[in-house]
């Protein structure tokens, strides 16, 4: 079984030296996360990656997600009891003011809605509404930066692709990109919309990171080339202790339909700051491979981590061990070979 893995490109890895080194270490796709990439920079980034390596580039959409907009700094502190204005249009956020994208979310918010910012770092409860802004109260204490993922305690209508996604995918087509990832794929209709843009010949990875996506997996699988389990965003909607078992079931279902499946989020998270991973992390990666995953995705480890190359080399080492291991392998074989 050939294991493919993706490396997310960011400030830590976007240099000719690192890109060439990652390519030499079996990275199968370089993924550009559009949630953290300015559209004005996209063509230059793609051109550089294509110049530095023959590894294909994958554009990863923003998709159907809510995020807060820019804050005055990357550690704005909210205290329980703070009153916060939620604005309909973009403002520079602080502990008294905040705004969200897409902007149509503002119109859908209601009194008593709970807004969870950045994996529950701060929870805001809507307490008052008028035509100019909403008032919310912080019901937890925490710190929030810019462009963080947001969840709301009920379903909100969101388009499967943002305006930026449409523009980025058209740029990708113009520049010969063949690989695309649809974040927060929720239904077959989401997939069909993207296919109209990228065409039937493009490789489409549907990211399963919502309850709707999990429940609609049967209708999604026949329409895509691959799926990707994003355990991070999935854990914003499903209790974290259930994620290992959801992962196992999704992998099993995808393999039964012969659709390759990638697994992402926190594979080697400690390597964002440390040169070596934890024992729990390497065990998780090995277990994920033993479950039948066809590919692995490094995100923060290669995008913003201190040791992007070492993280990729560790994945290579684990894949090598996985390829050698069988239930018949002796203890001596495992230890000394």
Helix content: 25-40%
Please state roughly what percent of the residues sit in beta strands, choosing from under 5%, 5-15%, 15-25%, 25-35%, 35-45% or over 45%. Answer: 15-25%
Largest sheet: 8 strands, parallel, barrel
> Which spans have pLDDT < 50 for at least 5 consecutive residues?
none
Number of strands: 17
Alpha carbon gap, first and last residue: 20 Å
Helices and strands: which structural class?
Answer: alpha/beta
Outline: globular
| Helix-strand string | EHEHEEEEEHEEEEEHEHEHHEHHEHEHHH
Nearest-integer average pLDDT: 95
Number of helices: 13
Radius of gyration: 21 Å
Biggest β-sheet: strands ordered side by side in the sheet: 1-2-3-13-14-15-16-17
Question: Please, could you describe this protein's structure?
Answer:
There is one protein chain. Strand 13 (179-182), helix 5 (188-198) and strand 14 form a beta-alpha-beta unit. The protein has 337 residues and is of the alpha/beta class. Helix content is 34%, strand content 23%. The protein has 13 helices and 17 strands. The strands form three sheets. The chain has an eight-stranded parallel beta barrel, surrounded by six helices. A seven-stranded mixed barrel has the order 4-7-6-10-9-8-12. The chain is globular, with a radius of gyration of 21 Å.
């Amino acid at each position: 079984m050939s294991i493919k893995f993706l490396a997310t490109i960011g400030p830590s890895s976007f240099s000719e030296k690192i890109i060439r080194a990652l390519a030499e270490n079996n990275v199968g796709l370089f993924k550009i996360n559009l949630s953290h990439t300015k559209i004005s920079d996209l063509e230059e980034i793609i051109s550089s990656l294509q110049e530095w390596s023959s590894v294909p580039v994958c554009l990863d959409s923003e998709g159907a997600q809510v995020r807060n907009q820019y804050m005055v700094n990357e550690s704005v502190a909210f205290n329980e009891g703070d009153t916060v204005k939620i604005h309909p249009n973009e403002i520079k956020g602080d502990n008294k003011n905040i705004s969200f994208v897409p902007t149509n979310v503002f119109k859908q918010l209601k009194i008593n809605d709970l807004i969870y910012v950045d994996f529950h770092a701060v929870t805001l409860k809507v307490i008052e509404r008028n035509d100019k802004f909403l008032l919310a109260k912080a019901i937890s204490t925490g710190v929030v930066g810019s462009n963080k993922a947001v969840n709301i305690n009920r379903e909100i209508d969101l388009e499967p692709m943002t305006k930026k996604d449409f523009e980025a995918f058209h740029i990708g087509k113009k520049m010969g990109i063949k690989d695309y990832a649809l974040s927060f794929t929720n239904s077959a209709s989401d997939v069909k919309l993207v296919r109209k843009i990228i065409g039937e010949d493009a490789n489409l990875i549907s990211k399963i990171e919502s309850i709707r996506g999990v429940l609609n997996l049967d209708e999604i699988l026949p329409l895509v080339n691959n799926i990707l389990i994003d355990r991070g965003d999935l854990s914003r909607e499903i209790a974290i202790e259930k994620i290992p078992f959801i992962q196992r079931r999704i992998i099993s279902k995808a393999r039964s339909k012969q659709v390759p499946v990638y697994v992402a989020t926190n594979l080697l998270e400690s390597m964002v700051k440390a040169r070596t991973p934890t024992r729990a992390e390497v065990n998780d990666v090995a277990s994920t491979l033993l479950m039948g995953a066809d590919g692995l995705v490094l995100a923060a480890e290669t995008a913003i981590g201190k040791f992007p190359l070492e993280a990729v080399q560790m994945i290579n080492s684990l894949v090598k061990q996985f390829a050698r291991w069988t239930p018949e392998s002796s203890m001596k074989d495992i230890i000394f070979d």
